[in-house]
Amino acid sequence: MRGYGQYCPIALAAEVFAERWTPIIIRNLHLGCGRFTEILDGAPGLPRSVLSQRLRSLERAGVVSRGAGGYTLTGCGHELAEVCLALGAWGARWRQARPEDQDPYLALWTLSRMITPGMVPRPRVVVRFQITDRPPPNVFWLVLSATGHEVCAHPPGFPEDGQVVTDTAGLVRWYASEAVLTGRITAPRWLRDSLTLWGRLNPFIGYGQSRTA
């Protein structure tokens, strides 16, 4: 990215932060993604070549470090992640996603990165989500375990603990605004309680409700 040629802290920061995809990459690293493929999973549409370029640029800027386990944010990078969170709070308050931009897979993927091991009541939990207003692939499996979480577009090969049938708007409201998960839910009480808990994890819940002119 070409610099602004200004000795201004905002301009200097924007030279690192304001490149396309960079805030999304930092967000994914903040969510615990360390491997190249993990970062890609949470950034649909991001070309592999662009991700490589951005990671190299962030390494040079001291925002990201690379080790045997993959990529991690440095102290500098964690501070920049706070800028991402502030930007997200502003976006939640003043912007609204278009219906065509609502992605059920990405909503489930982001949620899976927020669920800590202590929030998973069994060694493995598998929840099937069927999205009624989307063409195939419109069925996803949220798989949570001590070894890691993932969202699958194909049957993961484990028994299902519950099923949710809802539309995209209902799924996004549950993930983004602490709304009750709507639709047809087939699940035991312990899983219903967990679904309620997981729906409260988004750090931007409540910001949209405070929107004023």
What does this protein structure show overall?
By secondary structure, this protein is α+β, with helices and mostly antiparallel strands. The chain contains eight helices and seven strands, in the order H-H-H-H-E-E-H-H-E-E-E-E-H-E-H. It has helices at residues 9-17, 22-30, 36-41, 48-60, 75-94, 104-114, 168-177, 189-198; strands at 64-67, 70-73, 124-131, 139-145, 148-152, 162-166, 184-186. The strands form two sheets. The chain has a five-stranded mixed β-sheet. Strands 1-2 form a two-stranded antiparallel ribbon. Helix 2 packs across helix 5. It is globular. The protein starts with 8 loop residues before the first helix and ends in a 15-residue tail after the last helix. The model has no long low-confidence stretch (mean pLDDT 93).
Sum up the structure in keywords.
5-stranded mixed sheet, 213 residues, 7 strands, 8 helices, alpha+beta
Short structural description:
The chain contains eight helices and seven strands.
Give the SSE map:
Elements: H1 9-17, H2 22-30, H3 36-41, H4 48-60, E1 64-67, E2 70-73, H5 75-94, H6 104-114, E3 124-131, E4 139-145, E5 148-152, E6 162-166, H7 168-177, E7 184-186, H8 189-198
Parallel strand pairs: 3-6
Antiparallel strand pairs: 1-2, 3-4, 4-5, 6-7
Helix pairs in contact: 2-5, 6-7
* Fraction of helical residues: 40-55%
Beta strand count: 7
N- and C-termini, Cα separation: 35 Å
Rg over CA atoms, rounded to whole Å, is 18 Å
Uncertain residue ranges: none
What string, H for helix and E for strand, traces the elements in order? HHHHEEHHEEEEHEH
Mean pLDDT: 93
Beta-strand portion reads: 15-25%
